[in-house]
Amino acid sequence: MISAPRAVRGSALVEALVAVLLFSIGIVALVRVLGTAVKDAGDIEYRAVAATLADATIGRMWVDRANLEAYEVDDEPVPELPNGLRTVTVDGTVVNVTIRWQPPGVDDQRVHAVAATLTGN
Q1: Higher pLDDT residue, 58 or 42?
Q2: At CA 55, angle to CA 53 and CA 56, rounded to 5?
Q3: Cα gap 21→66, rounded to integer Å
Q4: Contact present, 99 and 81 (Cβ < 8 Å)
Q5: pTM for this structure?
Q6: Please, which pLDDT band fits residue 3 given cuts at 50, 70 and 90?
Q7: First vs last Cα of the chain: how many Å apart?
Q8: Is pLDDT above 80 for 107?
Q9: Contact 77, 85 (CB under 8 A)
Q10: In angstroms, rounded to a whole number, what is the distance separating the alpha carbons of residues 26 and 19?
């Protein structure tokens, strides 16, 4: 039986340990990326809801342009969003709709603001 030189013994074990280390680092990075993607998906959903609510508000106002001032509200609760609030201001024919919300576990508020000029037929 021929034995390997002393300097070569154990090199396969070292290579296997390095491979396991690199694989583990890759798995940890993948889990971190997936966690961020899930958190961002929630933010995107809330922003889409806010945009839909703002557009719907402007759409109702467009149909009823003669009564724009009746739509003015300040910090009206928005149940579709966590801690959601809607503010609508009217300056002549210019309408500003601001929707604020605070996602769970986040310290700062998110804001979606839309301005529209309601004129025409």
Answers
A1: 58
A2: 65
A3: 69
A4: yes
A5: 0.68
A6: low
A7: 98
A8: yes
A9: yes
A10: 11
The CA distance from 36 to 68, in Å, is 41
- Enumerate the domain spans of the chain: 12-117
State the Cα–Cα distance between residues 2 and 56, nearest whole angstrom: 82
Q: Which residues pair with 91 in a beta bridge?
A: 94
Task: Report which DSSP code applies to 70.
Answer: G
Handedness of CA 57, 58, 61, 63 (dihedral sign): negative
Query: What's the rounded Cα separation, in Å, for the pair 83 and 4?
Result: 70
Determine what percent of the chain is predicted with pLDDT higher than 90.
58
DSSP 8-state symbol, 109: P
The residue assigned the tokens 């390095």 is 18
Residues 17-45: pLDDT tens digits? Answer: 999 999 999 999 999 888 877 777 778 89
Specify the residue for token string 């201001």: 89
Q: Which amino acid is at 34?
A: L
Residue with tokens 């500003």: 96
